């Protein structure tokens, strides 16, 4: 029933079914499976296929129409893509909570970008690739500090 989940989690899931989070606390395996199932049910067929084969899926921002790639993970796993599909900047934002399964985090990021893109960008931490550091605007919002020149302005 959850064969796609075992493929996604790969060999690590056999040795460490519930990865440790913040010390000795563990995420429950049932919660992890339910989170991946919920994520998969909220993806389009194309996004589900992308996730299955590349451990990432693309999302279109609701306010600006920009493309984002959400990779498997919970920290700096959202990439703003340029016209060629390459990463312009990596973003880090997530829901509150220390022991959320990765599937829930990725679903929250997807929903935030589709429904509240500008608000998500306001709180996101940025990681600019080394090759693109000359293209940043230092006069952007003090919270962002380093934003690309063509970063959408909040309305």
Can you tell me about this structure?
This protein has 155 residues and is of the alpha+beta class. It has one domain. Helix content is 35%, strand content 17%. The chain is built from six helices and seven strands. The strands form two sheets. Strands 1-2-3-4-5 form a five-stranded antiparallel beta sheet. A two-stranded antiparallel sheet has the order 6-7. α5 crosses α6. The protein starts with a helix and ends in a 7-residue tail after the last strand.
What are the main properties of this structure?
alpha+beta, 35% helix, 5-stranded antiparallel beta sheet, 155 residues, single chain, two-stranded antiparallel sheet
- Radius of gyration computed on alpha carbons: 16 Å
Strand residue content: 15-25%
What percent of residues adopt helix (DSSP H or I)? 25-40%
* Major β-sheet profile: 5 strands, antiparallel
User: If you average the pLDDT, what whole number results?
Assistant: 78
What's the number of helices?
6
How many separate structural domains? Answer: 1
Output the strand order for the largest sheet: 1-2-3-4-5
Order of helices and strands: HHHHEEEEHHEEE
Q: What sort of overall outline do the alpha carbons produce when their principal axes are compared?
A: globular
Number of strands: 7
Q: How would you classify the helix and strand content by structural class?
A: alpha+beta
- Report, as a whole number of angstroms, the end-to-end distance: 45 Å
Low-confidence stretches: 11-16, 137-149
